[in-house]
């Protein structure tokens, strides 16, 4: 089942990645052609910027993740000593590792001693702070995809943020899971990014009319607000789920042999729990910011006083 799942998700992920990247590539070429009519240097600068952004936000996180040594906590005693030594050095560079554990692990590395127990304790200690990385990325995705109102940009943002999150979690723990399990995660990211890209095509008006009364759905802007919140919440839930799967693979010993159903149920439960914890606060933060911005705009354009013009006559005494 695990083998068949990989061979289904792998080509499907590649296909979805092509569906996302190809239209974006054509858009980049179109913009470059327009800039070429203005200046060849401007066109070159644009292409260099696009390639730099692609490398920094997509290719580099994947390359760094693959470059990290592979290790499974559930089978630590059978891992090569060289791999455990590399992971120990990476863990020691993590500023979130407590000083007592850093001292013990550092001494063991210097003396080339037994690392199994210390390494497991150190990684389990780092697991306590790993959720903050996931929550931060989910909050960014929720705020950005709620505001953007553009399916293609939302898909690209979700893709880049999730690739970065996986790489940051791998760097946080100092090791990665197997390439096959890692590619399964990347495939799910590509597939979900494509679904987010197509969410703008949903007929949300008809759906809301079935659920809610016409009086509510006919309020100005109500459908747009609900649609934005649905997109932001869906993207954040998916980000939390990917973070939970990656965290389980890296820390909880749930390596490739674990049943897919077990991983999926565990990740879904963790994602919904964290969503219930962080999304209300993120929604309140977004609402407060929008109200402040709207109030500022209204104050300047409607109630604000006109700036004095130097040519205006001075007021009489």
What structural class results from the helix and strand content? Answer: mainly alpha
Distance separating the two termini? 90 Å
- The topology string of helices and strands comes to HHHHHHHHHHH
Indicate the multimeric state: single chain
Name a few traits of the molecule.
317 residues; 0% strand; single chain
Provide structural commentary.
The chain has 317 residues and is mostly helical. The protein has 11 helices and no strands. The protein has helices at 2-38, 40-67, 81-92, 99-110, 116-148, 151-173, 179-198, 204-211, 214-217, 222-251, 260-303. The longest helix is centred in the last third of the chain and has 44 residues, at 260-303. The protein is globular and about 70 Å long. The termini are far apart.
Topology of helices and strands:
Layout lengths: L1 H37 L1 H28 L13 H12 L6 H12 L5 H33 L2 H23 L5 H20 L5 H8 L2 H4 L4 H30 L8 H44 L14
Task: Summarize the model shown.
This protein is mainly alpha-helical.
């Amino acid at each position: 089942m695990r083998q068949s799942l990989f061979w289904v998700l792998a080509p499907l992920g590649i296909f979805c990645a092509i569906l996302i990247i190809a239209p974006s590539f054509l858009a980049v070429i179109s913009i470059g052609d327009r800039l070429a009519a203005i200046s060849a240097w401007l066109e070159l600068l644009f292409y260099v910027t696009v390639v730099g952004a692609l490398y920094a936000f997509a290719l580099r996180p994947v390359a760094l993740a693959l470059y990290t040594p592979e290790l499974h906590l559930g089978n630590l005693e059978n891992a090569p000593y060289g791999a455990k030594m590399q992971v120990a050095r990476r863990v020691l560079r993590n500023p979130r590792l407590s000083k007592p554990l850093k001292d013990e692990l550092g001494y063991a590395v210097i003396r080339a001693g037994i690392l199994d127990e210390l390494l497991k304790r150190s990684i389990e200690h780092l697991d306590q702070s790993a959720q903050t990385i996931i929550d931060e990325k989910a909050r960014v995705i929720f705020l950005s995809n709620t505001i953007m109102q553009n399916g293609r940009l939302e898909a690209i943002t979700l893709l880049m943020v999730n690739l970065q999150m996986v790489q940051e979690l791998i760097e946080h723990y100092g090791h990665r899971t197997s390439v096959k399990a890692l590619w399964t995660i990347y495939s799910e990211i590509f597939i979900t990014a494509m679904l987010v890209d197509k969410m703008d095509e949903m007929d949300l008006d008809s759906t809301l009319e079935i659920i809610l009364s016409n009086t509510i759905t006919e309020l100005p802007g109500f459908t747009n607000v609900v649609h934005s919140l649905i997109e932001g919440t869906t993207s954040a839930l998916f980000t939390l789920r990917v973070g939970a799967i990656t965290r389980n693979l890296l820390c909880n010993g749930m390596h490739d042999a674990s049943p897919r159903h077990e991983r999926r149920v565990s990740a879904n439960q963790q994602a919904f729990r964290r969503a219930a914890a962080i999304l209300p606060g993120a929604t309140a933060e977004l609402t407060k910011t929008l109200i402040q911005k709207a109030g500022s705009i209204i104050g300047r354009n409607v109630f604000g006083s006109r700036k004095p013009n130097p040519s205006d006559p001075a007021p009489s005494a």
